[in-house]
Amino acid sequence: MPGPLAGLRVLDLSRVLAGPWCTQILADFGAEVIKVEKPGEGDDTRGWGPPFITNPDGSKGDAAYFLSTNRGKWSVEIDMASAEGQKLIRDLAAKSDIVMENFKVGGLKKYGLDYESLKAVNPRLIYCSLTGFGQTGPYAQRAGYDFMIQGMGGIMSVTGQPDGMPGAEPMKIGVAFADIFTGLYCTIGIQAALFHRERTGEGQHIDVALLDSQVGVLANQALNYLVGGKAPTRLGNAHPNIVPYQTFATKDGHIIMAVANDRQFKEYVGILGLPHLAEDERFKLNRGRVINRAELIPLLVEPMKTRTTAEWVQAFESAAIPCGPINAIDQVFANEQVLARGLQIGLTRDDGVQVPGVANPIVFSGTPIQYDKAPPRLGDGTEKVLREELGLDADEIARLRKAGVIG
């Protein structure tokens, strides 16, 4: 069964993470994705290791980082700095539905590959520009990277141990949080633009920024400030609006308790052997528990240490109180639920190399995702794409390769 975006062609001029994350999702959904890479070098993340996969000849191959975000694409080596390379890319854009790029503002104009230039050859084109700070504003010309955007965009100010605790300092999230969310916003925007084009026949330019996306996903923390007028602070693993919603030490480790309503709190303290806390006016309602957090939490800490994590999970789950262990990543992929959902996948590259991967978390009933192509070898689609999409013959491809226009 073809994917929901089958028949669409994406010209991917992006590299590193946020843009490729978007185009990998589009590939998962059935779109044909042509990834343009610099001859002989390719995407920077091919070298961002270790770890690396092993090539058939025993040499180091691509880094795991690259593999995480480029499934389902064809790699085409084209020198964008050459006039002939620019023409090849324009010719591909004329035959594409979507262009994804993450160059600095105006960076592609000198190559004739900016939106206005490509719109002239393909008015139906949906062109998504992903930058650090957007196409407008005083920071538009600045480069943006995930780590600095996490800091500038506020998420680090609410992540980490609170002041006065051991290890207290602003803390970044353990994956590229701003990049991933920006890639998701690009995907959402592109799909909305496709629907608009379906109704009107018109393409458009989409402007997505790392900083905008990071601010956009501050969610309740942003509204806590905008409504309450007080900037939220770091709470470690505690929640600013729900109590108790945090980690607790157990007899053999830690457990996450997510006691999200008053019924659950009553059941929770009953199992803990502290039923009177549910009748205490300070703690009876969640709003009181938030206000009186400093008084309540110390009353729970020692009782939580009396059983193992597994024993608490069994006891709380039987009472429908949300809780869970803190798994290392190897434990995640050994988890029975993760296994049952098929979240680890395996793909075989055209040279026989086995490449693991993580499944797309979206499950379609009518158009299930097919994982047919491993992340590409550098240039694995150069000849195929130029021959099939642009009609170039073997002699012309050989000439372009000899001239260094293609790899």
TrEMBL record:
InterPro entries documented for this protein: CoA-transferase_III_domain, CoA-Trfase_fam_III, CoA-Trfase_III_dom3_sf, CoA-Trfase_III_dom_1_sf
UniProt cross-references to SUPFAM superfamilies, sorted A to Z: CoA-transferase family III (CaiB/BaiF)
Alphabetical keyword list: Transferase
Single Gene Ontology MF annotation: CoA-transferase activity
UniProt entry tagged with the keyword Transferase: yes
Protein name: CoA transferase
Lineage: Bacteria, Pseudomonadati, Pseudomonadota, Alphaproteobacteria, Hyphomicrobiales
